[in-house]
Amino acid sequence: MSRYAMAIDTKRCVGCTDCVVACQTENDVPVGYCRDWIVEATSGVYPELQLEIRSERCNHCSDAPCVRCCPTSASHYAEGGIVMVDHDDCIGCKACIASCPYDARYVHPEGYVDKCTFCIHRVKEGENPACVSVCPTHAMIFGDLDDKNSEISKVLQTRKHKTLIPEAGTKPNVFYLL
Amino acid sequence: MTKRFKRRQFIKILGAGTGGAVLGTTALKAFQPGEKTDNFHLLGKATDAATPTYCEICFWKCAGWVHKKDGKPWKITGNPDDPNSNGRFCPRGTGGIGAYTDPDRLKTPLIRVEKNGKQVFREATWEEAFDYIADKMKMIKKKWGPECVALFTHGSGGSYFKTLLKAYGSNNIAAPSYAQCRGPREEAYLLTYGEGVGSPERTDIRNSKCIVLIGSHIGENMHNGQVQEFSEAVANGATVITVDPRFSTAASKSKYWLPIKPATDLALLLAWINVIIEEELYDKEYVKKYTYGFDELKKAVKHNTPEWAYPITTIKPHIIRETAREMARHAPATIVHPGRHVTWYGDDTQRVRAGAILNALLGSWGRRGGFYAQAKAHVKKYPVPKFPKPKKNWKDAFPNQFPLANLALSSGICDATIPTAERDCSFKGWIVYGTNLMLTLPQPQQTLEAIQNLELLVAIDIMPAEITGYADVVLPECTYLERYDDLRISPGRFPTVALRAPAFEPKYNTKPAWWMAKELANRLGLEKYFPWKNIEEYLDYRLKSIGSSLKEMKEIGVKKLENEEDLYYLDGEEYEFNTPTGKIELYSTALAEYGFDPIPRYTAHEEPPDGYYRLLYGRAPMHSFSRTTNNPLLTDVKSENEVWINPKVAREWGIKQGDYVVLENQDGVRSNRIRAKVTQRIRHDAIYMVHGFGRSDKRLRRSYLRGADDTHLITRVKLDPVMGGTGMRVNFVTFRKEGEA
Ligand code: SF4
Ligand code: SF4
Predict the structure, then answer these.
(1) Ordered domains of chain A (ranges, CATH)
(2) Where does the 4Fe-4S ferredoxin-type domain lie (chain A) (predicted)?
(3) How much is the pTM?
(4) Closest ligand 1 atom to A53 CA
């Protein structure tokens, strides 16, 4: 078994949006839509400021509300726990969009719901997702959490990290290194 | 046909034409798309093999691969063998496909004509466009001399127009990247070390333990390899000291953020030099062995104590001391970054020189983690006859001014186009390649005036731009994805050569620059300067000289060559520097000779009047100036700029987050409306915006009137007396509500 996950280093990331653009070209995401996006969170008061930059996307949660609530099972778990939407089975009811605490999904102009796939087509070929392989600052690590020797398993053992909205109880598989 | 327009009106591209369709007939039949000809290589097959390219979205020129899916354009990825990108493009390069697919591109040659008393563009054939240009160029040559034609250029294809202009008899060839950007930096380092910093910069950031950034917003300026190294250094725990009135992305990764009062950086630099000398933190051996003028320097900065600098810069003395010590602790692996866009306040050569001096005291030039020695491939030039010797050049218009300008000043040529009583010849013709002068040159009112005095204005570009609207002839170039260009020969840690080959057939009726220049040369009787049959032959000839070939390069994209020099200075070796004294000149003998301060000296700059704020501008990582602000993939991630305003200031003016405001400068010039970004990340005495937005051409459907254009507000400059750079951060703005009188 594998459990795919991503670790994103907020120390390295400069918020350039290359991950967003690479995803759009790799996956033919139509202009005006995106599967990943950048959040810049400023805290503190001048001149004591902090800035956290995050490249966000579907968290491929281990307890994904979208999978649970999908009436047609179009939203499902594919290999390695990747949350996928079967475009043919999707009836566009948007229940999943309402259930996702991360706002990770959108309705594709062709009528189905779409979102990040962890570039499953590349992962199956042994490659990294497009965003990971393009990132100029090497801010992202993709890998298998069930493999204790994988880079991602190791980095999560040594570096402080967090997930987004853990209180939603979705068990996200995208981690932010702090 | 060669009639002169008394007053050029701005013409919206295709205003006279028929929307998207190309109706212009192409007389040069041999180049119809789809036909395979001797002169023009077209990729006929629907092949999914990748084509090598190097990126043209910015000057970093990363090498990569263009991929197709089912024969259709798909994506661009970096070439792992390329040291500029290390296999990873930046967002602009990744979004390069958008430059190709942009439906608003220039589509066919255009000629300005008068129709019912109104100036319009008519679609023309290439033949007509070339004849028009050649006729005018011949006329100018005869009447005023060939030196009265100037070329402004930014980008790869410009090299063919440079050849054309030199063959024609003019060496008035200017790149705005000099006087409007990095000219002062190159001169400052030349004066100090006898060598410039180059592009890509020779900064060894990857190995730095301490990085000092003065206004350089690495990460927002997406100079790819440099950003990569910066992030690596940060991840490895390097100490970053960022001096910036704005909490930039780089500042957020810094141990020290010094929110300096704008326009006072030189005072801080002098105080750092003072501390390093007074506390004897400098590299004594290095200074003794390699530098000239230490005692004069010591004397000159004696009074520049941190206490002296505090009220000027607002940076506390203990912070100045602490950061100076931090720099010394990591030396020589400390780099005081020389910056890139440094034309700020008019004393820019001197300010950058203070940084260069600091680097010398820390011993970081020629040392690991500081600056390495660049290596560049020696590629044979295709032999051409000797160029005629011009009788005059732009400098004649500025007797005794800017003595140390080593390259032509774009702004100088622009000024010298406006006739005055003292000038025997003003410029009569401009060829503008790949640079949107209206947004590139400060003081757009002056640029417009200059344009009105021209007999000929040719614009070569991919997109309609503010400058193309004023051209007599517009030549549409195909994008870098649709053409060959000259080889990329970048300096770096080792020499590399990269190839750009066409991945797609040129869309519409567009052509590559090499072809345009060659065709024009034929019409001007200058064909002997373009002796090659076609671009493939030209490239193959050059590549053979490094033991490669066009065939090999199509397979590998990038060729790495051996570095014969050492990256760093060897311990104990003697080195001679290319300066008058043969040493690193802390005291510049050349500056002294020309009557400038041989050691930088701080002078106060004008401050914003009450209710006004200094206008600062910069870059966003997903855009390259105005070049990309209409790219569909990149507007998707950033479609307009915002004005950064400190919350206190916003409160005073009743401006709320996301409000649209209008900026008005000290001369009453107003901007387009721009959204307020109310943020703690900027000081109270300055505002900030990203350059390249607020476009005024309606045909740029995604960028038209999106955000504001900073250049429009830069109606004043301060000239650098040393080399003529145009200091542009000397403008002040206040707020107006939309529609307010
Ligand atoms: S590509 Fe990398 S550096 Fe750029 S925004 Fe994405 S994660 Fe951050
Ligand atoms: S830094 Fe970006 S825009 Fe510049 S050449 Fe490289 S990929 Fe292209």
Answers:
(1) 4-177 (3.30.70.20)
(2) 4-33, 49-80, 81-110
(3) 0.92
(4) 8
